[in-house]
Write a structure and sequence with these properties.
The structure holds two protein chains of two kinds. By secondary structure, chain A is mainly alpha-helical. Chain A is built from 14 helices and two strands, in the order αααααααββααααααα. The chains are: A mainly alpha, B alpha/beta. At the A-B interface, helix 3, helix 5, helix 7, helix 10 and helix 13 of A face helix 1, strand 1, helix 2, strand 2 and helix 3 of B.
Chain lengths: 323, 450
């Protein structure tokens, strides 16, 4: 209030001082306003973290404590690691299920990236007939919900696929029966297929925006398409590759539906998501171990996220400095 | 940069190859064994084939007990059994059948679903050998829910007893109450407790996620059995009388009349907002005297609760939810094993599940797996050794055996649209006071699939 008065009445005062004072109020207002987004961000962070915090606290409370009071009434004396102990000693085998999850999530992350990077480069920088139409067709597949394809896919994994020609009475085997039903292979194959449209779309957007001069320079130096892709495009695309890898890894690691459909009754191939869901028990009587299960499940994705985030940020910075 | 990127990429690629190699290795071996089922040998040697079973039971001790029991027997005839508990069994079994990938045997908690599968030709009838075993160990009243159009498809694998009231004998003794033996006594006791102004007579909660209301349906079924009798009950679940028949409406009305605020302690504020599992704590805390719930509720009492132990004043016990006409009807539920193929090995497993030996061995294993105490398992198979059951579990069996009329949980027999749909939702509205018993019954009747 006093600052405002001074500024308003400060017309008679010497110039530099007046400028300094009005600069002060602008600065202060600016400083204040600049803090608003940060404050809002912090507020969002806090609000968004509360459920996770509650889950985290509840993961250390036994069943009766969870049933009796909310997590905010936690008493230090009731904290226990029994829930984690129950999960780690589950008969179904947490270690095996974590390996199964890895056997699904790692191929389902690497393979789509590998294929999509080649495809995206081709769509972006190799001129060929029907390029646009093919690209639109690929991206249009984004609109197909994977749920509608689950049972046909499962049938294909169980018995292969064949077509009987009506008049010739001849059966053509399109896809042989690889006996994939109930295996982690069938799960990551499904994930790979359904990740492809989005992967190609995302990588294409990034790769096609790389400066044209780079490619011309490389071609003048005698580089062929493979060299350009391998030495130029891939290193420059690391930010987008990392971004997609994070998304795809999280999605496949946390997937329940596809694994549940494809693996079905085969206990030895079940990923952690199914194991944890089963631990909840008949009539949900063991639901109290689910918070602990959630953190066991979330541990690996967190490691992957923080490991890859470095590349994510470095890639963005590299661009800005050069620009 | 380039080299580092390559190194980074190399690690997961290598890992994925290893993982893929491991994955395909173990799967091919297990699959090849299950493919050989047709090559089953004679004279009780099945050449090490694997029989897969799925089911909704997914507690660790249950999975352990089922697997250990079946495999211990399987060793004697050289076959392996792999039981998988499935949190989403109801949906998954449909997917697996449609995808052409069903297990060899599955455990059906709902005879209604078993009948649907039998009529669709998904499951196969049991062999004569299994039928003979069934007749030896199971009363007709339990067999008949695995029977579809006079063909036996299911083998009872587990029995739940629902007509039970949980209470603390010491709390009754302290207040001078006696265990009621007739329904009139029960109502008089509830009135007495309410008038005395101490703890409420009943703990009731019907919240159960998307299955909210099933506790109410159990009460109504018990009430129909008591008021109208077993014949009307059968007509009701088979839809030979409409759902809004006056006798059913009366039963629904009786239940909600009993659930007045004076009579009920609801831990969550209202009956519909109280989770069915949250009724154990208030009972041992002395906030209510009685809770009507099935035998599996033993697992939902707070840790450290003792059962049927006269030396412990806080021990919890059960009494039979009393009858009206003296015919001692009990409401039961249970699980039926049914086979998706009639392979000799599959049928041998079905045959073993039908025996008392399976029931008591599983009970023994499951008691060990939970570390003593109540196993959560119960079987009404005849000729079991009662010594494998704890005192409380023995009293469950006594109640089961004393009953002349056992009826399966009606909501599991009705079409899913009703039994797992409107019966729950309209029941919940009725409990909330949003509708009347007659309107609720009429709405359920209207939803019955034509």
């Amino acid at each position: 209030m006093s600052a405002t008065t001074t500024t308003l009445s400060g017309t008679g005062q010497p110039g530099p001082s007046s400028a300094g004072q009005s600069g002060g109020i602008v600065d202060r207002a600016y400083q204040f306003l600049r803090r608003i987004p940060t404050g809002v961000l912090w507020l969002i962070v806090v609000v968004w973290s509360i459920p996770t915090l509650g889950l985290f606290i509840n993961s250390f409370r036994d069943r009766d404590a969870q049933r009796a009071t909310g997590w905010w009434k936690v008493k230090p004396s009731e904290l226990t690691i029994d829930n984690y102990d129950t999960i780690f000693s589950a008969r179904a085998g947490l270690g095996r299920s974590l390996l199964n999850s890895a056997a699904i999530a790692i191929p389902a992350t690497i393979i789509p990236i590998a294929i999509a990077a080649f495809a995206a480069y081709g769509f972006a920088w190799i001129p060929f007939r029907g390029r646009k139409g093919l690209f639109i067709a690929t991206v249009a597949l984004l609109a197909i919900p994977l749920q509608v394809a689950l049972i046909p896919l499962l049938q294909m994994f169980v018995g292969g696929a064949s077509v009987t020609l009506p008049l010739l009475d001849k059966t053509i085997v399109l896809i042989p029966d690889f006996d994939l039903a109930g295996t982690t292979t069938s799960v990551w194959l499904t994930h790979t297929g359904f990740a492809m449209p989005f992967a190609i779309f995302l990588l294409h957007n990034y790769i096609s925006s790389l400066p044209k001069d780079l490619f011309e320079a490389a071609r003048i130096d005698g580089a062929d398409h493979f060299t350009i892709f391998w030495r130029l495009v891939l290193p420059l695309s690391i930010p987008v590759l990392a971004a997609f890898a994070i998304f795809q890894f999280l999605w496949t690691w946390n997937d329940y539906l596809i694994a549940n459909t494809m693996i079905g009754a085969n206990a030895s191939q079940q990923p952690t998501t199914i194991l944890i869901a089963n631990l909840a028990g008949d009539f949900g009587r063991n639901e109290y171990i689910l918070p602990a299960g959630a953190f066991v499940q979330a541990f690996v994705p967190l490691v992957v996220f923080f490991a890859l985030q470095r590349y994510f940020v470095r890639g963005l910075l590299a661009g800005s400095v050069k620009g | 940069m380039n080299k580092r990127w390559l190194k980074l990429a190399a690690v997961p690629v290598a890992l994925s190859f290893i993982a893929a190699a491991c994955g395909s290795d173990s799967s091919s071996s297990s699959d090849s064994t299950s493919q050989n089922t047709t090559a089953a040998g004679e004279g009780g040697d099945f050449g090490g084939v694997t029989v897969t079973i799925t089911g909704p039971e997914r507690d660790d001790p249950s999975i352990a007990a089922i697997n250990d029991t079946l495999n211990a027997w399987g060793e004697t005839v050289n076959l392996k059994v792999e039981y998988t508990g499935d949190a989403d069994w109801e949906a998954n079994i449909n997917t697996q059948v449609e995808g052409g990938n069903p297990p060899d045997i599955s455990f059906f908690p709902q005879p209604g679903k078993l009948a649907d599968f039998a009529r669709a030709g998904y499951i196969v009838p049991v062999t004569d050998e299994v039928n003979t075993t069934l007749d030896e160990f199971w009363a007709d009243g339990f067999q008949k829910y695995g029977n579809v159009d006079d063909v036996q498809y299911g083998v009872p694998a587990k029995t739940d007893l629902k007509s039970l009231v949980w209470y603390q004998p010491q709390a009754f003794a302290d207040a001078g109450y006696e265990v009621p033996t007739t329904y009139d006594d029960f109502v008089a006791l509830v009135d007495q407790m309410a008038a005395d102004g101490g703890p409420k007579p009943l703990c009731v909660g019907i919240e159960s996620g998307q299955a909210t209301g099933w506790t109410f349906t159990d009460w109504v079924e018990d009430m129909v059995l008591r008021q109208a009798g077993a014949d009307v009950y059968d007509q009701w679940v088979n839809h030979e009388i409409p759902f809004d028949d006056p006798q059913i409406v009366t039963a629904m009305q009786t239940v909600v009349d009993l659930w007045t605020p004076e009579n009920v302690f609801a831990a969550g504020g209202s009956i519909a907002a109280t989770n069915f599992a949250d009724n154990g704590q208030p009972l041992v805390d002395g906030q209510c005297y009685m809770h009507r719930q099935a035998n599996f509720f033993a697992g939902l009492f707070p840790e450290g609760t003792t059962f049927a132990d006269p030396s412990d004043p806080t021990a919890v016990d059960v009494f039979y939810f009393p009858d009206i006409n003296g015919d001692k009807p009990v409401l039961t539920a249970g699980i039926f094993a049914s086979a998706f193929n009639d392979d000799p090995a599959t049928m041998a497993v079905m045959n073993y599940i039908a025996t008392a030996d399976y029931a008591q061995t599983r009970q023994k294993n499951q008691t060990e797996a939970v570390g003593g105490g109540l196993s959560g398992y119960l079987s009404a198979a005849m000729n079991q050794d009662p010594a494998v059951y704890q005192p409380l579990e023995q009293s469950f069996l006594t109640i089961l055996n004393a009953s002349q009329i056992a009826r399966f949980d009606g909501s599991d027999l009705m079409p899913a649209d009703v039994g797992a749909g409107t019966f729950w939702s309209e029941g919940t509205s009725l409990v909330n006071g949003d509708t009347t018993a007659a309107d609720a019954a009429a709405a359920i009747e209207a939803s019955w699939p034509k």
